[in-house]
Amino acid sequence: MIVLRSPFSNSSAIDNFFDELTDPVQLPYWRDADHSSFNFSDTVGEIINNESKFSVQVDVSHFKPEDLKIQLDGRELKIEGCQESKSEHGYSKRSFSRMILLPEDADLTAVKSAISNDGKLQIEASKKANTSRIIPINFVAKH
């Protein structure tokens, strides 16, 4: 008779399993994300649009930096993420795409991005300097 035992048949094996999973080794943010959730990057985070800058934040913690793409076409800012994985058990693909129209006074040549340790993508553009000015009217007397 063959007896099959689950590695989780006693609580110490389960405890050891979870201890290994939660080892405090510092992993990159995308390795530590909850990949069981499919509700990711559904919304754009904080948006700032004031007289000095336009800034937007997106949670991309489920994607590695190399899985992300930011493209600027005119004032249209497109943020995309695509991740594929294949294993002996199947294939999975997750992706998202967000399009944001930048304000007319955003300096399109100054758009920059950065990603934080917790997977928050920050895209920022400074605003163009206000080029309006008051032109004085000079009175010229005719002779």
TrEMBL record:
It comes from Caenorhabditis remanei (Caenorhabditis vulgaris). One of its GO terms (biological process) is protein refolding. One of its GO terms (cellular component) is nucleus. Residues 35-140 form the SHSP domain. Belongs to the small heat shock protein (HSP20) family. This is SHSP domain-containing protein. Gene3D superfamilies: 2.60.40.790. GO terms for molecular function: unfolded protein binding.
